[in-house]
Amino acid sequence: MTHATRTRLAAALTLALLPSLAAAQFGNCGPDVEKYCKGVLPGRGRLLRCLESRAADLTPACKQTVGVPTFTNPESACHDDVVKYCRDAAPDKAKVKACLQENAAKLSDACKTALVAHGS
User: Fold this and answer.
1) Which of the four pLDDT bands, split at 50, 70 and 90, describes residue 18?
2) Do residues 41 and 63 touch, judged by C-beta distance below 8 A?
3) 3-class state of residue 107 by DSSP
4) Which member of 35, 40, 68, 77 lies 3.0 to 4.6 Å from 63 by CB, making a disulfide possible if both were Cys?
5) CA dihedral 5, 9, 11, 15 (to 10 degrees)
6) Omega prior to 74 cis, within 30 of 0
7) Which of 30, 37, 115 has the alpha carbon at shortest distance from 79?
């Protein structure tokens, strides 16, 4: 077997195993990685970002592994942020949503995660 053939074989084997290795890295997220992040190459936080972007679709076990809060809705997760930044906009939901978007950089991580998870 030539060196070039061995190199191609090793590269093909590595690419074939990447999804399984990536799934193993995230423990309880194996099925979620396979389903939602199959084409994502591991490293530099790419898999974590992929999983976080699909937070609403993840299994509860994977959410816990990744550290995604499991709030039932953005209203409960963002309550303190609404009080702090958007008090004048309440109770108008459209105004509150616009206010939260305007203050996105200042929002709590829990609120940001809930908004992303619910596509708000």
Assistant:
1) very low
2) no
3) coil
4) 68
5) 160
6) no
7) 115
